[in-house]
Amino acid sequence: MSGQVGRTRDVGWQIGVSKTVERPVDEVWDFVTSPAGVAIWLGDGVTLYEEKGAGYETRTGTRGETRSFRDLDRIRLTWQPPDWSHDTTLQLTVSPVAPGRARLVIHQERLADASERELQRKHWQAVITRLADAITAD
Fold first, then answer.
1. Contacts of 71 (CB under 8 A, 6+ apart)
2. What is the per-residue pLDDT across 36-65, written as a single tens digit (0 to 9) for each?
3. What domains can you pick out in the chain, each with its CATH number?
């Protein structure tokens, strides 16, 4: 292991972002798995399937497949934009923080290098902010 920030021995370069949302877990989960929520974090035109191995492709060509889907907990899938030569592993997690509050986490691993990690860090920070704003919009 090189000691570089964001690099691990097992999954290479990775990034994680999180945000606490003033809503209960079930409400946050219902949104992130709804068509409107999926469009924000995964991409337009995607139907997310719970079955392991189920594929998806966004309107912009990002594609992958479901690895695991645990209701009210986490979704793990592969994620590969059309201009990338490799796929990555993406995980979205919702967990309780306190009554009426949930923590939303997006984690991506198997990134190619430090520059791809930085690009994805900015991308997922913007995505998680949009998700949180949409979830808490009244």
1. 29, 50
2. 999 999 999 898 899 999 999 999 999 999
3. 7-136 (3.30.530.20)
